[in-house]
Amino acid sequence: MSEDYQPFRAPVAGGDLFGGQWRAEPGENAATVLAVHGITASHLTWPWLADRLPDQRVIAPDLRGRARSNALPAPYGLRRHADDLARLLDFLEVERAVVVGHSMGAFVAVWLAHRYPDRVDSLVLVDGGLPIPRDVGIDPLLMLGPAAERLSQTFETEDAYLDFWRRHPAFASDWTPRVANFARYDLDGAAPRLHPSARLAAVAENVMELNGSDGFTEALTGLTVPIDFLRAPRGLQNERTALYDPTAVAGWSASLPNLTAHEVDDVNHYTVVMSNRGADRVARAVHEQILESERTPT
Question: Quick check: keyword Ribonucleoprotein in the entry (predicted)?
Answer without folding.
Answer: no
